[in-house]
Amino acid sequence: MDRLASARPKRLDTRVPTTNRVVAPLTRNPSGNELERAVDEPDWVPEGVDTSIPSVARTYDYLLGGAHNLAVDRRMADEMLRVLPGARHLVRLNRSFLRRAVTHLVRRGVRQFLDIGSGIPTAGNVHEVARAHAPDCRVVYVDKDPVAVAHSRMLLAGDERTDVVLADLRDPEDVLGRPEVKGLLDLDQPVALLLLLVVHFLTDEEDPVGLLGRYRDRLAPGSFLVVSHATDDRRAETMRRAADTVRRARSRDNLVYRDRAEVTALFTGYELEEPGVVGCALWRPDGAGSMADTPEDNTQVYVGVGRKPAPGERGT
């Protein structure tokens, strides 16, 4: 890591404009609906974004209580909450898992993080959690949503140990070959690859196991894979209705649920850290908002952390 300069010029992907515009104020409308904006199309949305189509990243932001979302995203989220009332709690459980997993990896010596499908940064994101334990940690955030990327760049401007890339999980060679990634992360040293609530947007035809294998093969021994993935192992009918909600909303992403064995297969070539692939709330709970009120909520999302062994080490 000594060869990487701590101060470097920021490289920006010119396909997505940066912005320093003020976010439109939030109000409640007369009927009391949460987080209605003062305008229908706020000026913080980059040019070219179709504001009639909901975004998973912005919907997730809304469910976490964030401000960077549109009316179309809130409508999809509210419909999701009607069929899956625990959705807001599930995304908070996932955020708690992120905190525990990143803390664990820093304690294991990891100082480089690649967060793909990172969404819109909110309090307690990867760089904040990691640097609470090791200030020298470096983080690259990757998302395909232009709004998420624009706001990430605005919020992280001037932070020389983070960068943000507009790219798609489905193209590992493009992601890992980006100047922002290669300029900030030393891929010859261990990197933690974070894929939180994103792999379930890959269809079976897109071969998620093979796709993740292409990332694995480019990462150094000692690197880690962190995954959280929705499942319909419990509440199958409720989860089916939730997936239908996403489809009806014309979102460009469709949910594909997988069972525990299928999520475990994503860690092919990695050694799973204890306790293996388990329900989100059951991965090393620490009592700080990590457990749900019901067993079903604890296991509605499968999670795991795996380490890529060095040649000669025992593999999976």
CATH superfamily of the domain at 87-285 and 296-307: Vaccinia Virus protein VP39
The helix content, as a percent range, equals 25-40%
**Between the first and last Cα atoms, what is the distance in angstroms?**
28 Å
Rg is 19 Å
The helix/strand order is EEHHHEHEHEHHEHEHHEEHE
Average pLDDT for all residues: 83
Poorly predicted segments: 1-40
| Helical segment count | 11
Tell me the fraction of residues in β-strands, as a range: 5-15%
Form type: globular
Second CATH tier, the architecture of the domain at 87-285 and 296-307 = 3-Layer(aba) Sandwich
> What summary fits the major beta sheet?
8 strands, mixed
The third-level CATH topology of the domain at 87-285 and 296-307 is Rossmann fold
Class based on secondary structure composition and strand pairing:
alpha/beta
